[in-house]
Amino acid sequence: MTLKAIIFDLDGVITDTAHLHFLAWRSVARQIGITIDEAFNESLKGISRMDSLQRILQHGGKSAAYSDKECLKLAGEKNDLYVRSLAGLTPDSLLPGIREVLRDIRAAQVRIGLASVSLNAPTILDALGIKGAFDFCADASRILCSKPDPEIFLAACQGLNVRPDEAIGVEDAAAGVEAINAAGMMSVGIGNDLHHAGLILPSTRELTWPCLSDFWASRHHPDSNR
Questions:
Q1: Which of 9, 37, 92, 165 is catalytic?
Q2: Residue 46's pLDDT is what?
Q3: DSSP annotation string for the chain
Q4: Catalytic annotation on 165?
Q5: For residue range 15-47, what is the model confidence (pLDDT) as tens digits?
């Protein structure tokens, strides 16, 4: 079987905006008397904005303290802070090796997709100067179920016109790797603690086209168990 597509998450894979998310959420949480730290912020990786807010409210013992309208206002305040912080992103904000791997995947005539739950993904790709590198970006605003549900990866496969078993997904969050696996794709995890990924790489520096190609071949060789 031929590898037809590589589908990337954005935050923590293409660029690292996790700290910007943390600063924005910490500011909003402080307003309502909840303290969060960067360790807690790890649990928000790959999770949608409203789901993240619910986790923060639960963490602070205030799950039932705010109406849906108030929750939307809090989430909007967080997004405003975060979007303002994105002004500092430039092409130099790409994580190590990403520009090269995108170039080499393109040269191999394999399609490139994005599966990010970030509603700000288009803005981020523009700031990084790589919007044209992607053949299809799943529209987060049309996704009903956040990761670990596979919906956004399935939407990316559909947009690229490939079957899930013809694609590799790349993630840095546990929920994202679960979503890739649930979609029926092969999974690459960036980070040493993603033990349920098919391939684990310590950082994006190791995320090369030869590495991805060898990973695919290892699972589709006639002598493999797959």
A1: 9
A2: 73
A3: ----EEEE-SBTTTB--HHHHHHHHHHHHHHTT----HHHHGGGTT--HHHHHHHHHHHTT-TTSS-HHHHHHHHHHHHHHHHHHGGG--GGGBPTTHHHHHHHHHHTT-EEEE----TTHHHHHHHHT-GGG-SEE--GGG-SS-TTSTHHHHHHHHHHT--GGGEEEEESSHHHHHHHHHHT-EEEEESTT-TTSSEEESSGGG--HHHHHHHHHHHHSTTS--
A4: no
A5: 988 889 999 999 999 999 999 999 998 888 878
Domain at 5-15+94-220: CATH code: 3.40.50.1000
Span 158-166, average pLDDT = 98
Asked whether residue 179 carries a pLDDT value surpassing 80, the answer given is yes
What is the domain partition of the chain in residue ranges? 5-15+94-220, 18-88
Given pLDDT bands bounded at 50, 70 and 90, which one contains residue 222? low
- pTM, to two decimals: 0.84
Among the options 11, 139, 172, 214, which is catalytic?
Answer: 11
Is 11 among the residues known to form the active site? yes
Q: Which CATH architecture has domain 18-88?
A: Orthogonal Bundle (1.10)
